[in-house]
Amino acid sequence: MSRQELRAPDAFQRVGVGAESWVAQRKTVVIGAVLALIVVGFAVALTKTLSDRKEQKARIALGAALGVLSRPIQAELPPGSTEDPAPFKSEKDRDQAAATALSGVVSSFPGTDAAVTATLPLAASEVRLGQVDQGITHYEAYLRGAPASEPLRVAALDGLGHAREAKGELPQALEAYERMAREESAGFQAGMGSFHRARILALMGKKQEAAQAFAELIAASPGTPAARLAQDRLSVLEAEGFKATVAPRPDAG
Question: Would you call the peptide bond into 171 cis, given omega within 30 degrees of 0 as the criterion?
């Protein structure tokens, strides 16, 4: 290699010089890009912080709204007793106050978990107040927003089914109870989705199908409150001539 070649910049030097030249020529662009990345990172962190604060405020508001539902009715208290805050004069007054408070949570904190949770007691309060359409809307909103693993979904489907039934919408009520039967697990409501499904089938005039559904529930969940209710309904249907056939369960072991 000649001295001239040794003195000449090698490939790495040329690349380095080229890069420095590129940065120098585009200094404003490079600095702007770096600043943009910093701003984006800060915005993401700020958004999370604000979101956390919003969720915390929403939870506090939800707790206060649920506290309204826990306040007693005057008739439930012993004569002469005093409460602070004062008890409600009637269940209707309590439901109206609760609906107002819960609606405030939903409207003030949209997109939060607390707002989703608030739609469930809000729906129940509205149905009790006779505002069935609004209740159905909020039951469905809760079911859209609540995760699939949330146990309270069963209560929402139960409420939705009863609300649909109150409007005489039996096919929609049946659909809600079928969803309830699929989602329910062991617990105090075990089998209730299946019970209501069978009950609606009977109301729709499908009595043979209802008898079969009641019998299958009794076999699948023996000893549960749902099974006892199903037995009462099945006895009535059997007296009318609708007999069910259930295959015997294999012995354990």
Answer: no
Residue 33 belongs to some domain of the structure: no
How do residues 109-140 score in pLDDT, each as one tens digit? 999 999 999 999 999 999 999 999 999 999 99
Verdict on whether the full-model pTM lies above 0.85? no
Domain containing residue 232: CATH number = 1.25.40.10
Q: Is 10 helix (H, G, I), strand (E, B) or coil?
A: coil
Give per-residue pLDDT as tens, 177-186.
999 999 887 5
* Cβ atoms within 10 Å, residue 219: 15
- Would you state the structure tokens that stand for residue 49, as one six-digit string? 């912080």
Closest CA to 230 of 187, 186, 197, 205: 197
**Residue range of the domain that includes 103:** 50-73+83-146
Mark which of 97, 113, 146 sits at the end of a domain.
146
Residue 214 within any structural domain of the chain? yes
How far is Cα 240 from Cα 226, in angstroms, rounded to an integer?
A: 21
Looking at residue 120, its amino acid is L
The verdict on residue 95 lying in a domain is: yes
Encode 162-219 in three state secondary structure.
HHHHHCCCHHHHHHHHHHHHHHCCCCCCCCHHHHHHHHHHHHCCCHHHHHHHHHHHHH
Cβ-contact 191, 220 below 8 angstroms:
yes
Question: Which residue is it, tokens 């609004």?
Answer: 134
CA distance 87 to 168: 35
**Percent of the chain residues topping a pLDDT of 70:** 76
Cα–Cα distance between 20 and 14 in angstroms, integer?
Answer: 10
Q: What is the dihedral of CA 122, 128, 129, 134, to 10 degrees?
A: 50
